[in-house]
Every structure is written in structure tokens, then in C-alpha cells.
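ENTRY TYPE: paired fold submission
RECORD: A
CONTENT: sequence, then C-alpha cells
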Amino acid sequence: MAMSSGLSGLPIPTMDWSATDAVRAFAKFKELCLLLFNGPLADINEERQVNYLLLWVGDEGRELATSWNLPDADRKRLKSYWDRYEKFVKPKSNFRIARFKLQGAKQSEGKSVDQFVKRIRLIASECAYQADQIDEHLIDTLIFGCTSERIKSKLLQKDENLTLDAALDVARTEEATQAQLRDLQGEKQVQTEVVRVKSKQLNSQMKSY
């Protein structure tokens, strides 16, 4: 089956079934598939979307699908495949290792708060926490894993009613403020250097007389 011309130039999903962290690998694979199904492939019916999925999962994914002996109706539904693939990769994930990773996660140099939170959300999805506990763990990781001491300080001053959305608002605002201050300081340094050079030139001219 040839790829749709609407996918020209776009990344094609591939699933690494041998990945050490199979749950995360599948989550990223599914995320890209859904972006294509809800974007350039949104106009095709679900049965054809299933065909694309079976192309992208590779030989091992197709062998798994064949082993399920799905009824005809289920073979045309994406959910039938998503649910079973997720069940297949889940045992390969160790939730205690995922929790250890979440507790020790640090914001990488040059990465924004939003990028950091996106990364720890993926880790948290593997931690087997209760749904109503996930945001609290994400807030803790954001506080202790972010690189800005000002963000840490501001969030630590909040009470137990702090939500993840509110914590992100604080972090984004502080991050934007610090970026603006750096820009202003950079402009000030440039202006100072210009004045210094002009002053030096003027002094040289005066000495020449």
C-alpha cells in the first residue's frame, strides 16, 4: 500500500517493539499516528486508518494483530488495536523504575518549563499512580527539577491547594520575565560597550592634537 501523497514530507510513525522502555516508545508512536489521523488523514474512513496503522506497526505488530483473531467488526476499529497493543507493551514497563525516574527528573539546560513538563508527563504515565495523584507528583517534580531557583521559591510558597495549571502559570511567567531581563541586560551591555568605544576614540583624538 503506497503512502498517501498528503503525507509527503511528514514523519512516518515507526514502532520499536524491542525498546527497553516499550510503554514510552508506544506512547510516542501512538501520538504521531493520532496527529496524522486527525490531520492529513482525517478525511479517510476508520477502516483505511487501520490499514495505515498496520503498515506502521511493522512485521511484529502485524503478527500480533493476526494472533488476536479479531471479529470482522473489530478489525475495522482503531480502538481494538490501540487497546491490545497497549496491553502487550505494558508488562514490559516497571512502574517502580518509572517512579524513580520521575523523582530524579531534571530540567535540561536550554529546555523550557513546558518542554520539561511534557517529558515528565510521559514518565508519570508509566508510574501506575492513581489518576487523582498524578498532578501532585508532577508539581513536586516541577519544583525540585526545574533549573530556576526563583521558580522553586515561588512554588514552595504556595499551599496545598496549588494545582498543576496554576504552578505552570507561575513557572511560565517567571521564565518569560527572566528571559526579558536577560534581553534588557544584553542591550545595556551593548550600549555600555558602544559608549566605551566612542569615549576611547574621543580620547585618542584629543591626545593627537
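RECORD: B
CONTENT: sequence, then C-alpha cells
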Amino acid sequence: MKKTAVAMWLHPKHPAISFTTWQSLWSCWLYQAARQRKLGGLLLLSLVSLLSGCASRPPQNPDNICAVFQQEPEWYDAAKAARERWQMPIGVAMSMMFQESGFRHDAQPPMRYFLGVIPYGRASSAYGFAQAKDETWDDYATAVGRPFASRSNFADAIDFMGWYNSRSARLNKVSKSDAFRLYLNYHEGWGGYRQGSYRKKAWLVQTARKVESRARRYQQQLARCEKDLGSSFWDWF
């Protein structure tokens, strides 16, 4: 039977979309289906545990980390787990994520157009909450043994950021609480940071300062509300 253009595009082997991006879209669809149909009991719990973080829209008040976690309590659980695993302040990771994607699960670089009309691809393969590129995400999934990790899954994305920042700290001697230098590593790559490529990019340095300022604000907010955060097992029933 002849495949339609849509069916071919959705197929994981189709060159228009990478396998990891297809996996992210598929997991997000499953998550939304679970929420909309309100599946009960252990099935819902297992689905949310696997796919939590794939939100239909960004938080309503992204300037307040307490409001973000109150809207999406499972995000706090995931952020806390990443903090414990990678010794990374929650405010740092969340500030970097906001800068990268605005907390949008399906964020990606804009399409480029030839002569303003003909689309010819995106600037990079960056996708999801953390805006991780295909090759970097694959390195992470291999390193931590999570082949089914998805970039549109908040828990996976924030764990990825913890892994990346942990390597930045080890390779380039950057403090895990230094949001400014961690973001420069994240944007330029470990080699680019060592070479000082950011020094010729005033706009990037300014952006990294914004990330630093937001991380500090998030940490201060979190200190006031963290004791009241977290999702309950019984909330799902």
C-alpha cells in the first residue's frame, strides 16, 4: 500500500526526522493521551513515571520557580532527583532550561527558508526542554544507560542537564553552582569554552549573565517554598 506523506514523515526511518526526535514526539503523544483519558491506578502511575514532563504548554508563571513547581509538581520531583544525582542546584538547571526552551517540550530552532519561501531545514538538531542536539543526547543516553530517554520528557531533560553540567565541572573546572560559566559551556561546548570562543560573542556573555541572575532568583524563591513542594502518590487516585 502506498504511504502518505504524513505517514512517511512520522516513520522513524524517514530522513526528515531523526529517531530520537520521533521518539520524543511519540512519548509526548502517549503522555497526553494518558492525561486526557485519565487512566487510573498503576497504569497511570507507570505512564506518568515514564513520560512525566511532557506538558502541553509552558508554565503560566515562569519567573517564579515555586509557581512552576506548583503547576507541575512532578517536575519538582525530577529536579530534586537530578540535584541528588549530579549535585547540581535546581535553580541553575531550571534557569538554563528556561533560557534554552522556555520550558517548551517541543522547542526547536526555527525553520530556515531559501528566498524566504522554500524551507531547507533547521539550524541544528536541537530539540526539547534542554535543546540537546542529536549527537550529544545520544552520548548522554549511552553514558547513563538510558536508551529510551526522551528530550520531550522533563525528567530525562533535566537529568541530561545535570550530566552535562557535571562534565563541564570536571573537564573545565567550573563550579556546579556557577550558572554563568556552566551556561557558556552548555552553549559553546567543552572545547569551545576552553578556547574562549564566547569572548567574541558579547550577546552570549550577556545572555549567560541573565541565566546567572535568574538562577540566583530561583534559588532564593525555592528556599522559601521547597518544604511544600512535591507530588503525592495518592494524587493520582
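NOTES ON RECORD B: The CA atoms of residues 66 and 182 lie 23 Å apart. The chain has one domain: 5-236.
STATUS: closed
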